[in-house]
Amino acid sequence: xxxxxxxxxxxxLHFGEKSVLEHVSLSLKRGEITTLIGPNGAGKSSxxxxxxxxxxxxxxxxxxxxxxxxxxMPQKLVIDDSLPLTVLRFLQLAHRSNKSTALNILSMVEGxxxxxQAVQKLSGGEFQRVLLARAIxxxxxxxxxxxxxxxxxxxxxxxxxxxITRVRDEFNCGVLMVSHDLHLVMKQTDHVICLNRHxxxxxxxxxxxxxxxxxxxxxxPEESELAIYTHHHDHQHGLSGDACSDDSHEHDGEEK
Amino acid sequence: xxxxLLPSLLGGIGVALVAGPLGSFLVWRRMAYFGDxxxxxxxxxxxxxxxxxxxxxxxxxxxxxxxxxxxxxxxxQRYIANDTLLGILAHSSLALGLVVVSLxxxxxxxxxxxxxxxxxxxxxxxxxxxxxxxxxxxxxxxxLWRPLLAITIHEELAEVEGVKVFWVRLALMVIIAxxxxxxxxxxxxxxxxxxxxxxxxxxxxxxxxxxxxxxLASILGMIAVCxxxxxxxxxxxxxxxxxxxxxxxxxLLCYLWPKKSV
Lengths: 256, 262
Known about the structure:
The complex is a heterodimer. By secondary structure, chain A is α/β, with parallel strands linked by helices.
């Protein structure tokens, strides 16, 4: 598979007795946006950490394209108030980059006016854009974004999704994104993977332009960066989250 | 007076020079208690030095580094939080040090000079040790500055970006151990952390970059050493605690001084 940036083959992970991921296989390709959704404790973060090489799977294969450059946007990054740090300086920590490269990247995420501000003073949306800038500073082949829009207001989310699409187009990189929301994913997503320890279902996000609930929430579809992914499960989860053989739709791993 | 105080002054300045930047990292990484743990364990190093008839500087460094390594090993488990681990190590090692000291019953070992410092008896040999330690710590800090800052902000992000996080973290612990071993003579085991933390915390309000905070912390530490020496000489007070009191006065001054902009 020559165009696969990163491939997981029948990969499982367990911490002691506790099984975290079971027989997960997936493939990330250049130019494609893959969104990972799933309930809390589904193993999304563990999967991301395996993809980044921060964690080793208990079994199965992780195949990275040789020389793969990764860009990473972590989920929660809190910089201690005691550290005096401007946005520009924060970006330059990623890489021995000169000022103009850092400024260029910052303008790409529409944050050039933030350069001299202290990182602790940014709003949630501004800080996420700066984190995105840091992730793309090294011109990554694969961009890994862990809940990039968490804690960002709706217009900020739309903005971020638009920037992520632009980054994908400009660098022609692959994108693996964890979504904090089970039902809303980025509209430009090429591939959605629903994870609950194992891959529950995967596919394309539906075209939701006529969905009334969606229209009510977000206005005109052409202005929006969001899409609704409808789940089609062929199995049911018991209390423990184990898959049961049942064809009705039950998702959260919690009792309803 | 000058000839009498010069070795002490040089020794104090040599320690304050590195205590500033290193203390900044302790503040940024919320490792204040870690500094305490290592310095408390230094007494065990002193006691071992006397018991085994070895150079005290070396045994202190060895004990501090083993303590840092022990902590790294203990951090691999997932049951006990960091601050609890530090508390266990700090007090166990201090207690063990005191037990060994009382077992030795060695008249040469003046416990209070190690606990509170004995800067006035600094010898040329001590000065050489202090400056050799300080300069090697400074060089290491300059070389590792960017990776150290990167892991301070986010360890996993730094690792993805190619920083060898484990080794950089270990290096930081080792240089903290080195500074404690060299600073022990100046302010004593119980107050070393103060010389690292207080000037760095004072510098924060006036710093606009990590580097300016580190440099300002060094300068403030040196001022406190000079002020402490003068005060201790004139009022005949214990030197180590007097230096720390000076640090605290500077800290208050830094935060009470009116600031116009920002």
